[in-house]
Amino acid sequence: MTVKFGVHIEPQLGYDYENAELIALEAEKLGYDSFWASDHLFWDEQSENRNCMDAWTLLAALAARTTKIRLGTLVTCNSYRHPPLLAKIAATVDLISNGRLFFGFGAGWKEVEYNAYGYAFPPIGIRMDQMEEAIQIIRLLWTEDKPSFEGEHYTIKDAFSAPKPVQKPTPPIMIGGDGEKRTLRAVAKYADYCNLFPRPNLEHKLDVLKKHCEAVGRNYDEVGKSLFIMTYGVLVTESEEEKEAWFARVSEDFGKPIEEIKERQQDGWPGSWVGNPDEIIERFQHFIGMGFDYFQVMFPGYGEDYVDASKAFSEKVMKKL
Q: Which of 76, 143, 203, 234 has the smallest number of CB atoms closer than 10 Å to its CB?
């Protein structure tokens, strides 16, 4: 199994463009497969002075500045852009990057953003219906010359969308989330990758995905398994002092008690997300053994400090896996 790693940032935490570009360019040099950005509008109700760059505008800019690294959203909220427009935006980024887009997609969840921006926030079942219609429309616009589609929520008629993506038939599609009835079923039907979180019931989620694949006639082994390591990030260090300073910084950034941060970093898995190289390698090996072949990793910091942490991970962990 070939294991790949990507770096991830949360623009809602306050990154500026210069730092995001630095992180992407350095990740490319270090051999990371991909750069990912979440798709949010702001962090919380006190974020009037905290940057939150638009994910797709950011990827378009980075597509022109990078040459090898793949670029992805983890994940695009369907509700924020009308599906035909999103199809065109994504195809344009794939064109600018010469075929390096990874299309991460989801139904949306952050109600505070919907309310603030005036988007309707229907129940999750309707949002899932909308997402499934949207992904069908997007794939049609990427692959057909003049498609039509009539759904309950979205309709297109003799619509054409050019440019088409460089990647054929489509850029790889990753659906994020672990909802057992709808999200994992949508993965089985439409996606190249699932994207899950390191929760205690992870093996059960994979079993559910396998059953959905069997139900729709899909080979489970053909679905890539991706794990998003957003449990406040990964830090390779031998220093207890550095670990404690990192826990304090994360506690301040996320507004969570230090003890809660430490507890979530353990989560009952072998090894650790914050520790020496052997501890971190042990944890990743555990998930690789479960079948995961792609990891999106956050690191502490917003610029040079983020780059330093990603470099340490690349040299001491990634290259050994």
A: 203
Q: Which domain holds residue 153?
A: 4-320
Q: Look up tokens 């999103």; give the residue.
A: 86
Q: What is the CA radius of gyration of the chain?
A: 19
pLDDT in the model for residue 284: 96
**Which residues are within 8 A (CB) of 245 and not within 5 positions of it... i.e. 6 or more apart?**
none
Helix-then-strand count for the chain, H and E: 11, 13
Q: Hey, is 191 helix, strand or coil?
A: coil
- CATH number, residue 293: 3.20.20.30
* Residue-averaged pLDDT of the chain: 95
Cα separation, 12 vs 280, in Å, equals 27
- Taking the C-alpha atoms of residue 267 and residue 150, their distance in angstroms, rounded to an integer, is 45
Spell 279-314 as b/e; 16+ CB within 10 A means b: ebbebbeebbeeebebbbbbbbbbeeebbebbbbbb
Antiparallel, parallel or unpaired: β 149-150 and 101-106? unpaired
Q: Quote the pTM value.
A: 0.95
Cα–Cα dist 291/132, whole Å:
26
Report the domain count for the chain.
Answer: 1
Which of 131, 110, 129, 132 is closest to 119 using CA atoms?
110
Are the C-beta atoms of residues 137 and 83 closer than 8 Å to each other? yes
Return all residues near 122 (Cβ < 8 A) that are at least 6 apart. 130
Express each pLDDT in 244-302 by its tens digit: 888 888 888 778 888 888 777 777 789 989 999 999 999 999 999 999 999 999 998 89
